[in-house]
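2024-03-11 09:14:02 INFO worker-7 job=invfold-0412 stage=load source=structure_tokens
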């Protein structure tokens, strides 16, 4: 069921209304009385931000996407959410979609600040009862005075932290999100060049590991930096930096490239590709192709890996897809893939430190709307994932990009390509580059180990 995408929607949309009518008819056929509880007095506004969420599952078809599942969540109190009106069309049952939908609604509840999820269901609805029990729900007393229900369930989504607040994000991540002072670069008159320079200088001032050599090179007109560790062995890692396509450069990623070179014991070539809005799509892609042509002429022995984080992971994936057979391994750290921002994890919202509005702004800078279905921009649309070499994908639990990265991993695995995917619990977007986060170093070493496995 991987091809069915769960996306935020309105609970009173025509597609939702059709699914809810089918849900009601199925309940009636099971003998459930509908005089009170199936809707429970819930209004569309209660299933919409900022106090709720509504998801619809879409199955691609020849005549457009078909809505085949729906469900909502609303806040009952500051720390308790209620899952409502979960329904999967019979044609889409039996392949795990109901469990995916339930998990997505729980994640949406977490994003609303809840630490407990509740739901009710009819006494005779054995499949639903089984699903909830397998998902960790336990039976409780009637919590909503709904005489039409026969079962009431509750699940602790997060263990409380020491100070009694809901957990989830690890303490160091929560603290970083709370302290984030990033300016609103979408504001009128924002000085993009000055902010880029401020970020560059800040990162250059941070402690960095020594390498045997860090040399700036001109790769047929594209600025790059080649990092050589003291004990270098054969092989080279081509690295594409993240930053929403708009921010960062080889100076900002100097520190993490040194770490990657030292852990992998291989040279790392960091590409300073052109960035929007000054140079829009496909300028960055063209720069990658140029650098790869230059690299083929260099006296560097061994196989090649390609590696990137966030928007850089998008570019790394596209580079591998455009150059089948050139790379022996791909490593993608929380890849930024979906210009439509339609996966359910976007419900994590601004509280994650990386909201949907910021995501949309990056895509607007990067490319015209008419280009956003191009596989060179949106590689989830690629039809040649089977040409990839062994691929490692890492996501973060509290990252809006989580679901699109994990969907990519599933699609690659379905083609028969060796695929390893990990989700880093408690983390949000951006942690990998920063060694002060406890999960940064282990993930860096995982990627380096995966590369070593396939280049040795």
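2024-03-11 09:14:09 INFO worker-7 stage=emit residues=456
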């Amino acid at each position: 069921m991987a091809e069915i995408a769960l996306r935020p929607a309105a609970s009173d949309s025509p597609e939702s209304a059709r699914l809810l009518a089918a849900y009601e008819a199925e309940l009636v056929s099971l003998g459930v009385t509908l005089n009170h509880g199936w809707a429970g007095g819930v209004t569309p506004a209660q299933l919409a931000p900022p106090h709720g969420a509504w998801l619809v599952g879409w199955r691609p078809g020849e005549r457009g996407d078909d809505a085949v599942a729906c469900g909502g969540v609303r806040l009952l109190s500051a720390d308790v959410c209620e899952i409502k009106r979960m329904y999967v069309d019979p044609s889409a049952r039996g392949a795990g979609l109901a469990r995916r939908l339930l998990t997505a609604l729980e994640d949406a509840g977490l994003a609303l600040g809840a630490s407990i999820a509740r739901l009710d269901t009819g006494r005779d609805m054995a499949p639903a009862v089984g699903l909830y029990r397998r998902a960790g729900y336990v039976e409780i007393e009637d919590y909503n005075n709904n005489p039409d229900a026969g079962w009431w369930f509750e699940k602790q989504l997060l263990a409380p932290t020491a100070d009694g607040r809901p957990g989830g994000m690890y303490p160091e991540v929560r603290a970083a999100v709370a302290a984030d002072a990033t300016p609103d670069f979408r504001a009128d008159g924002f000085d993009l060049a000055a902010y880029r320079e401020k970020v560059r200088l800040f990162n250059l001032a941070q402690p960095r590991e020594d390498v045997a050599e860090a040399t700036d090179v001109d790769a047929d007109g594209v600025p790059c930096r080649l990092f050589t560790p003291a004990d270098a062995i054969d092989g080279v890692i081509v690295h594409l930096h993240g930053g929403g396509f708009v921010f960062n450069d080889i100076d900002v990623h100097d520190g993490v490239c040194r770490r990657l070179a030292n852990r992998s014991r291989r040279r790392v070539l960091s590409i300073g590709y052109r960035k929007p809005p000054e140079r829009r799509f496909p300028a960055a892609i063209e720069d990658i192709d140029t650098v790869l042509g230059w690299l083929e002429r260099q006296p560097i022995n061994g196989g090649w890996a390609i590696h990137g984080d966030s928007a850089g992971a998008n570019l790394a994936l596209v580079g591998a897809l455009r150059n089948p057979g050139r790379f022996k391994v791909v490593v993608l750290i929380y890849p930024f893939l979906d210009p439509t921002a339609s996966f359910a994890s976007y419900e994590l919202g601004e509280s994650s430190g990386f909201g949907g509005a910021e995501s949309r702004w990056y895509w607007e800078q990067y490319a015209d709307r008419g280009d956003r279905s191009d596989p060179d921009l949106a590689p989830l649309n690629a039809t040649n994932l089977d040409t990839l070499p062994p691929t490692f994908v890492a996501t973060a639990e509290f990252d809006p990009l989580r679901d699109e990265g994990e969907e990519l991993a599933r699609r690659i695995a379905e083609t028969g390509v060796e695929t390893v995917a990990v989700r880093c619990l408690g983390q949000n977007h951006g942690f990998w580059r920063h060694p002060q986060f406890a999960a940064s170093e282990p993930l860096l070493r995982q990627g380096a180990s995966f590369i070593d496995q396939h280049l040795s």
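2024-03-11 09:14:09 INFO worker-7 stage=report msg="Residues 385 and 397 are 25 Å apart (CA to CA)."
2024-03-11 09:14:10 INFO worker-7 job finished
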